[in-house]
Known about the structure:
Blueprint: E1 7-9, E2 12-14, H1 20-35, H2 46-49, H3 61-71, H4 93-99, E3 111-118, E4 124-131, H5 148-158, E5 170-174, H6 205-215, E6 219-222, E7 229-233, E8 243-247, E9 254-255, E10 259-260, E11 266-272, E12 278-286, E13 289-292, E14 297-300, H7 302-312, E15 323-330, E16 336-348, E17 351-357, E18 362-371, E19 377-380, E20 388-389, E21 394-400, E22 408-421, H8 428-434, H9 438-442, E23 445-451, E24 458-464, E25 477-482, E26 490-491, H10 493-496, E27 500-502, E28 506-512, E29 519-525, H11 534-561, E30 568-574, E31 582-589, E32 596-598, H12 605-610, E33 615-618, H13 627-631, E34 638-645, E35 659-665, H14 676-686, H15 688-695
Amino acid sequence: GGVWGGHRWRNLKWPSGAQEGDLTAARDGMRLLRDRGIKCLVCAGNHDRHLQGIATHGAPTGSKSVLKELLGQFVDRISPKDTSAGGPVNPAKFDTLFNELGMLAPLGAAVDIALPLVASHGTRWRVRVLALDSSIRAEYAAQGFVDPEMLRTLREAARHTGDDLTAPDLVVVLVHHHLLPVSSLEVVQRQSFNGLFASPILLNAGTVLETLVDVGADLILHGHEHAKHHARYGSMASGRTDLAVIGAASATGADTKEGCRIAHSSFNLLTLGDDLSVTLQELHYRNGTWEPTAGGTPLMGAVDIRRSRYLRKQAPGALPSSRVLKQFVYTPSRDAIIRQVTTNYLIDRQRFSVETRNASGTPYFMGGFVELPTGETMPLNPAVEPMRAKNGGHFEYEQILVGLDPGRAVVRRIEHEIAWLAGGVLTQDDIKRCGSNGEIREGGREFVEMQVEQSLESLTLSIELPLGLGPQSRSDVEVLVRPPLGRAALARSELTERLRFSGLNRIAVNIPFPMAGYSYLVALRLPNIPPVGQALKELYGRMSSLAREVAFDIVANLANLAPGPKFSVGVYIPDVGVNGLGFQLVGHAAEEPPRYVSLSSNQHPFCSAHWGVPKILYVTNPGQISAEETALGVQADEAGMILLPLPGFLGGATRSPGIARVAWPVHDADKVAEGLLVRAAAAVQGCASRLFDLLR
């Protein structure tokens, strides 16, 4: 509101506006801040543009000379509107002084600032500052007015049209005059003749406010009335954010009638938090120092910030609302099925591609479809081979959409599914077999992750786990955010609070307006494998004593179902005395299989059989067994093997009480029919009833 002092003119005490010396003193003080590395921007007020703060441009021609004589002149406060009168354009004194320091906020244009605060979303806060000069075109007294040309310039500068990664987190607008009534002043501004001269709000405040919410501004900071003012303005138009309107009081405690009173001085402090929040706090001068008020006023939270970023991208003709639902279903056999539904999404018309990443397992693209804007659907074909491997654990599937015009288009819907065979971990023991897999799994947790490539209205992540293999409590689950450029994922409490549970094996979180370039994760601490009780140990002991008889029964059944090959059959039980999962041979028939098999990976076929899924393995070159095939439990004279879980009638839905291993020799490789797996399973099932009776 300017600097008030005393100026005598014809025996009248008249409050003066800021003189050149005042402006110079302010400039020099702000230079000290600049020299300490503090970025400063200033925007003029009516006392900076007009002597006594009173504009005379709109006064009748005959009265202008009287007003100028009465009020004096300060002709260089405003730069000429044009050069039509001839002669050079002399910049206004206010503009000249503060431009020397690079502090003058350009009117209607954007100033982008990357603040040095490293927030938990992984990058510096990006703040866009814009300024409106509500005094430079004012024509009467202390009124404020923003001309249409300045608003057009602001509209062009406010909306971000570049890369999502460089989009501003916060858009702040500076203006001098207040845009809404200041309620604290209405107590003294009753109906009276003097009230006719009360300092008005911005004359076209409604137009300015609607423009600001239309372009996605977050905060507008104003002064003028020397009274604090905290309010919010909202528009009924869809797709618009609310605007926080914050008025500062006076750092000198200035009052138009009473002058400066230090006891009434205050200023506002806006804090941009590590949690992507904005908080307002007032500081008052008391006892010789500036003291903050208790607490603070929350202005914006993380969701508000992300929503503003998203809506600022939604210029006319931009993307409609895009949403993604990504579901992760884990099976007891440690397979992970990933289903994704995407709506209103921008893709290349002729090419569909998807990437997936995991540190364990083998991915297959299972198919899906793309629904075009015309309503036509294009199928996405299942992949016979595993997805193509790229660097860094990435895998890619790509399909050319035949018959479409080139270019990019928004498609109505995309649905696709990926199966990660042995790609999941469900217990702490599983993690030990996966080796080093990043900071999250090394911390004893499994996680799902989605990287956002384009601005989205919402992202929903859903996890379904087998019964009994979910987290032990809700506190074992949290949501994390991984910033761009591969930075470490950080926990975000405001997103963790959005988690929803159905029991402890179905977990979901909806993330409003996730930011492009960031990855969102749900991490859950894994349970330990339940310890083997004494009763189960006794059953394992009885299994050991019966295993040889079980093996001969399987051989006998195979002789009837698949006559010809000479099969080697062994029965294994889990080794409960080692740190990790291994299997020891407890009974066999014909040729002796390996005595012990140690598992070093979740992709080991013994793992799958232990979890209830039969596995078949053919030797690539019979008679020339590879080191990898040896590690999987195949012997040198074998052409292949089948692993079959013994029926899980001992209780527990996630692991078998034992495994039957059926192998055939190299010299019988050509005699093995393709249906051997089915016949071997039938052979095992055929002895199951008698085995159950014996164990019982």
